[in-house]
Write a structure and sequence with these properties.
The structure is a homodimer.
Chain A (H helix, E strand, L loop, with lengths): L3 H8 L3 H8 L7 H14 L5 H8 L4 E6 L5 H16 L3 E6 L4 H12 L5 E4 L6 H10 L2 E4 L10 E4 L1 H14 L5 E4 L6 H16 L9 E2 L6 H12 L7 E4 L2 H13 L9 E6 L12 E4 L2 H17 L8 E3 L2 E3 L7
Parallel strand pairs in A: 1-2, 1-3, 3-4, 4-5, 5-11, 6-7, 6-8, 8-9, 9-10
Antiparallel strand pairs in A: 10-12
Helix pairs in contact in A: 1-2, 1-3, 2-3, 5-12, 8-9, 10-11
The structure holds a DNA duplex.
DNA sequence: ATGAAAGCGCTAACAG
DNA sequence: CTGTTAGCGCTTTCAT
C-alpha cells in the first residue's frame, strides 16, 4: 500500500515532512523538498483524500442534486454553479435522483456523512422534515424547486407571475380559449404556474375548463405529444396552449405538425424555460426565459455563504424572468 | 461532534457494539440492539463515511466523467450506467470536464485518492500516459471516445462504419455533392467519422472538396448554424450534408429554415446519435442511432468486472448502430 | 454477547 | 528545519 509512510521511508524523512511538502507549507528546506518530491513522482504517490478529509473535516466537494440531466434546463444551471464552485477551489459532484425519495435520501446522507461539504438541491424532497433537519445542521440551498414552508434558503423565479405573464401574452394576441399543459402538481412550480394561468384567465373573464387543464407525471416529449393529442380531441378545442416546460411545448408542437396543423395559425403555443432547443424548433417557440446561469451561480454563492459563515442567515431570492416572443405565438 | 463514541456513551455500550448495530451484523443481543437504535435515531446519527471508507478502503462510489451535460446524448448513456451501478449497490457521481485536461486530471485523481472506486471516462484524455498509468492501477473504462493505442477497456460503436453507412444513404438517394460538418479532429470519433465519409465518397467516385469539409471546435447549435451558413456560400453548393452530431445537424436545419430552404428538397441532412430531439425537429432528422442506454450499461458492467476481478482482462466492445431514416433525407 | 485496542492515511501541535 | 505523536471516525480481531 502506497501511503505517506512509504514515501517518508523512501525519502528518509518523517511523515510530517512529507505532509509539509504535499501541502506546500514552505517551511521545508529546499534540498529536503526536492528529495521528497522526487520520491513522490517516482512512486506516483497521491495523498489519500479520505485520510486527509477525515483529518481536516472538509472535502471541498459540493453535491448538486438534480432529478435528471435529460432536461437541458439543468445543464445551464449547473454551468452557473460550476463556475462559482471552481472559483472557490471546490469541485462539483452531480447526482441524479429521478425524483425518487429514497435516492434523494441516500445522496443527502452524504452530506451528513461528511463526504461533501454542502448540497444544492433542485428536486422536491418528499420527506420535508428530513430536509429541514439536514439544513439545520449542514449547508443546503434549494434551487428552482423549493418549499416556502421550510426555513431553507432558496433561489428561484416567481413562477406565478411568470406564467401569468405568459398567459396574458396569449390573451393579448386575441386568444380566449387557452389550455395549460402542466406537469405533476406535487411540484411547487407546477402549482404556482397553474395559479398564474388561472389568475390571468379570471382577470380577463375567460372560460376555465377542466378539459383544458392537463397534467403529466413524466416530463418528456411524449407527454407533450399526448397532451396535445387530448386537446385536439376536446369537445371545445383551445386556440392557444401554455405548456409549463419547453419540453412539453416542443412535444405539443410536434404533434400539431403530425396532424398537419400550424402554430400559431391553428393553435398558438407558449413554453417555459427557454432551453437552447426552444429557438431551434420550426416554428420557433415563444417561451419564458429563466435566467438559468444566474440562478446557478447565485445558488452556489448562497451555499458558500452558508459554508463560510454557518451562523449568519442567508436570504432567499426570486430572480426576474423574461417573455421571449417567437413564431409559435406570432402570426 | 456527533460520532460513534458519543452514541456508545449515550447508549452505555462500547463503540464496537454500536458499529455492529450500524452494520447489522446480527451478533448483538436484541435488547442492546434496540437500545442503541433508539439512541441513534434520537441523536439523528449518521456514520461518517470518511472514517468508514478509510477503514474499509472502498467507497462504493463510481465516478462518471463527461465533457458536458448539455448534449442529451450523454443523458441516456448515464441512465444506462446508473441502472447497473445502482443494482450493485453503488452510487454514481457525475463530473463535467468541459474537455479541459486540468479538470480531467483533478477528477481522475479522485480515483487514486480513494474517493471513488472506479471511473467511466467519456472524454479524450489529453495526457494519454497519465490515463494509461491510472488504468494500470485502478478500474477505468473508456466509453464512446477512446484511444486504440492504449491498453484500456473501452465500449463504443464503429464510427467509421456508421458514418460510411450514413453517407452511403445519401448517395443512394441520388446525391453526389455531399458535405460533412465535423467537430474537432482531436477527437477520435471525429477522425473516424470523417474517414467513413471519405471512404463512401471514394468508393462511389464522388468529388471531395475542401469547402465541403467543415470543422467546429464547439459542439452546439450555433456551430451547426455557422457551418450551414458557410456551405450556403460555397462556390459549389452541396446537395446533402452529413453532420457528425445531431446537435450540429439541428443547427444546420435551423439555418436552412431561416434562409427559406427546405430539407431534403434543397439540401438533405443526416445527423448522428439519435438524441430525443432528433425526431422533434421539423422536418424530422435522419440520423445514426447509437445504442446509448446499452453503451452505458455495458460500460458499467465492464467496470464492475474490473473492480471485482482486477487481474482478469476485460475485453473491449464495439456495439451496433442503426440508420434511422426520417424526413430530412426522404422526399 | 460485548469490550478493548489496533490501525486505515493524514495533519498539526509540540518538541527539539 | 524536522521528527514524534495524538487523533479525526470507523471496523474488526482478539479477549473475555
Amino acid at each position: 500500500m502506497l501511503n505517506i509512510h512509504k514515501v517518508a521511508e523512501e525519502a528518509g524523512v518523517s511523515v510530517a515532512t512529507v505532509s509539509r511538502v504535499i501541502n506546500n507549507q514552505g517551511t521545508v528546506a529546499k534540498k529536503t523538498q526536492e528529495k521528497v518530491e522526487k520520491v513522490i513522482s517516482r512512486l506516483n504517490y497521491e495523498p489519500n483524500m479520505l485520510g486527509r478529509n477525515l483529518r481536516n473535516s472538509e472535502s471541498r466537494l459540493i453535491m448538486v442534486l438534480v432529478p435528471t440531466i435529460s432536461n437541458p434546463f439543468y445543464a445551464q444551471i449547473v454551468q452557473g454553479i460550476e463556475d462559482i464552485v471552481r472559483k472557490e477551489n471546490y469541485n462539483v459532484f452531480l447526482c441524479t435522483t429521478d425524483s425518487e425519495p429514497e435516492r434523494e435520501k441516500v445522496f443527502l446522507d452524504y452530506v451528513r456523512q461528511k463526504l461533501t461539504d454542502g448540497v444544492i438541491f433542485m428536486d422536491p424532497a418528499v420527506e420535508v422534515e428530513m430536509l429541514q433537519d439536514l439544513a439545520n445542521r449542514y449547508p443546503v440551498i434549494q434551487c428552482c424547486e423549493y418549499n416556502e414552508d421550510l426555513n431553507i434558503p432558496y433561489i428561484s423565479i416567481d413562477d406565478t407571475q411568470a406564467s401569468y405573464k405568459a398567459v396574458k401574452h396569449l390573451i393579448t394576441m386575441g386568444h380566449e380559449k387557452i389550455a395549460i399543459i402542466n406537469s405533476d402538481e406535487t411540484f411547487q412550480y407546477a402549482r404556482n404556474r397553474k395559479k398564474g394561468y388561472l389568475k390571468a384567465l379570471e382577470e380577463y373573464g375567460l372560460p376555465i375548463k377542466d378539459e383544458w387543464i392537463l397534467k403529466n407525471s413524466e416530463l418528456n416529449f411524449e407527454a407533450g405529444q399526448n397532451s396535445m393529442r387530448k386537446l385536439l380531441r376536446a369537445d371545445d378545442k383551445p386556440t392557444a396552449i401554455f405548456a409549463v416546460s419547453d419540453i412539453l411545448a416542443i412535444g405539443a408542437l410536434k404533434r400539431m405538425n403530425e396532424e398537419g396543423l400550424q402554430a400559431p395559425e391553428d393553435i398558438a403555443v407558449v413554453g417555459f424555460d427557454n432551453i437552447p432547443f426552444a429557438s431551434m424548433t420550426n416554428p420557433a417557440l415563444t417561451t419564458i426565459a429563466q435566467p438559468m446561469y444566474e440562478i446557478g451561480s447565485q445558488a452556489a454563492k448562497m451555499l458558500f455563504q452558508k459554508i463560510n459563515t454557518p451562523d449568519e442567515p442567508v436570504s432567499s431570492t426570486l430572480l426576474d424572468n423574461e417573455l421571449i416572443i417567437r413564431e409559435s405565438t406570432l402570426g
